[in-house]
Design brief:
single chain, 474 residues, mainly alpha, 0% strand, globular
Length: 474
């Protein structure tokens, strides 16, 4: 009883640390570049501008469009939840309202991750998982631009915390009515997550497959089929409605055009980059010329083209497997490099941009072969950016190492193994999404991976330092 009271106090400390890190970044920006907190357009990523503009156009003019003025031609690249979120906050309180709301989402996600891990593995793995999530500087930096990951991760964790304990635990541990309402609520949250980032589209299938697998293992297949069916039905209704909108508006019955665009011009282009040693834009141009298809800029901005979305999408789909099959070995190598780059890259350059500073990269090769030269370049950035860089590298090393150890421990634990396999499948799903970014993957691409990676990291740390439990609970 005492432990159950003390662990939430430890979680409060974790949440306070999360808020302190984020507010520290906000204070630095307010001192060095206060205008950044007032104008979202200072974010150089064009996706940031698109998200807010879509939301503002929908809320102010009733059109889901990226056009800055009439006619407001409809858009099929983005889904609606995050644009409405960002656009509404921008109208209410400028860019700062978006950023502080996203800080709140990260703090809430810490709590959700704690609850999810505690439900399966106990309080100490939950504490360490939440602590890693709270102290990840890349997550904090990501809160300070209008990008959808913060909201997406929150919704995914909310759906997982509500749904997975119902899907993956024996039926007699919970009241039947409560389980049913949790499945409905979790399905709604998962549907909202999909409409925030289409990357979550197949996550209900992963959850349902895990539920069925555990149902077979526990000889409760009938119950598992019913629960999986409810989850699939509820979670897929919202994206189905958006697909119907796209079919009606564009004659393309898909959730988004991004999937097809990225398969050619990021996944496929990655193979070209590795094979020919060229940059992304040159690789994309090579694909467009070789296969006689519209260039990336046109398909990504169909509203500015004189061709229809249906025509452009059909043109790309007709050649997508030819592009992906052109250099299979280089495609595989590009995907591996994407996972590696996304797993180890850092957000210090983005932090420097927010502060109006110039980031002097020490260089990965120099860090390995010429550490003294790399260190000199690093310290040219000053103490704040240098400390941020070092902290992120150390954090990544600890998290990945602990996750590998934790995964091994979970697989050896008969009671935890079945649930661990389902969570590993979710982790693997999000790593596959990282590979979809191709050779250009970087730190932002790994953000949806992190909560599920930290599940295993938290489990591993709790096994490495079992004596820490009594100290943390005292």
């Amino acid at each position: 009883m005492l432990a159950s009271k003390r662990i939430p106090r430890a979680l409060i400390v974790v949440v306070l640390i999360c808020l302190a890190i984020n507010l520290g970044i906000a204070a630095l920006v307010a001192v060095d570049r206060p205008e950044y907190l007032a104008d979202y357009r200072l974010s150089k990523n064009p996706d940031c501008l698109d998200y807010v503009l879509l939301g503002e156009n929908l809320l102010l003019h009733g059109h889901f469009s990226r056009c800055a003025q009439p006619p407001y031609l409809p858009d099929m690249v983005r889904t609606p939840i995050y644009p409405v979120f960002a656009g509404a906050l921008e109208l209410m309180g400028k860019a700062g309202a978006i950023y502080f709301a996203q800080i709140g989402l990260q703090a809430a996600s810490c709590v959700l991750l704690f609850l999810l891990v505690r439900a399966f593995f106990g309080p100490m793995p939950a504490f360490w998982a939440a602590a890693l999530f709270a102290t990840d500087l890349a997550l904090a930096v990501n809160n300070f631009w209008p990008m959808s990951e913060s909201l997406f991760v929150f919704l995914v964790l909310a759906s997982a915390a509500v749904t997975l304990p119902v899907l993956l635990t024996p039926r007699d541990e919970n009241d039947s009515d409560r389980r049913g309402w949790r499945l409905v609520g979790g399905g709604v949250l998962l549907g909202a997550a999909i409409l925030t980032r289409p990357a979550g589209l197949y996550l209900p299938l992963v959850y349902s497959a895990g539920c069925l697998g555990i149902g077979v293992y526990r000889q409760r297949l009938g119950s598992a089929v019913r629960m999986a069916s409810v989850l699939l039905l509820i979670s897929l209704i919202p994206p189905a409605l958006w697909i119907a909108r796209n079919a009606t508006t564009f004659s393309v019955p898909k959730l988004t055009a991004v999937e097809t665009n990225n398969l050619l011009y990021f996944v496929g282009a990655g193979a070209y980059q590795v094979r020919h040693g060229v940059g992304l834009e040159e690789a994309q141009a090579m694909i467009a010329e070789e296969f006689h298809v519209a260039p990336y800029v046109e398909v990504q901005n169909a509203h500015a083209s004189n061709r229809s979305v249906a025509e452009l999408n059909a043109e790309l789909r007709a050649v997508q497997w030819d592009v992906l099959g052109k250099y299979p070995a280089h495609l595989a190598l590009s995907s591996v490099m994407a996972l590696t780059k996304a797993s180890f890259s850092h957000a210090t350059g983005q932090l420097a941009e927010m502060l109006g500073r110039q980031w002097v990269a020490p260089g990965t090769r120099s860090l390995v072969l010429h550490p003294m030269d790399a260190t000199k370049r690093l310290w040219q950035n000053g103490p704040v950016l240098s400390a941020a860089f070092i902290w992120q590298l150390a954090h990544v090393a600890v998290a990945l190492g602990a996750a590998l150890f934790g995964l091994a421990c979970v697989m050896r634990d008969r009671q935890a193994r079945a649930v661990g396999l389902v969570l590993l499948a979710v982790l693997g799903y999000f790593y596959l999404i990282v590979a979809m970014f191709g050779f250009e993957a970087y730190w932002r691409c790994r953000i949806p991976v992190l909560p599920f990676l930290y599940v295993f990291s938290g489990y591993g740390i709790s096994r490495l330092f079992p004596s820490a439990e009594s100290r943390a609970c005292s």
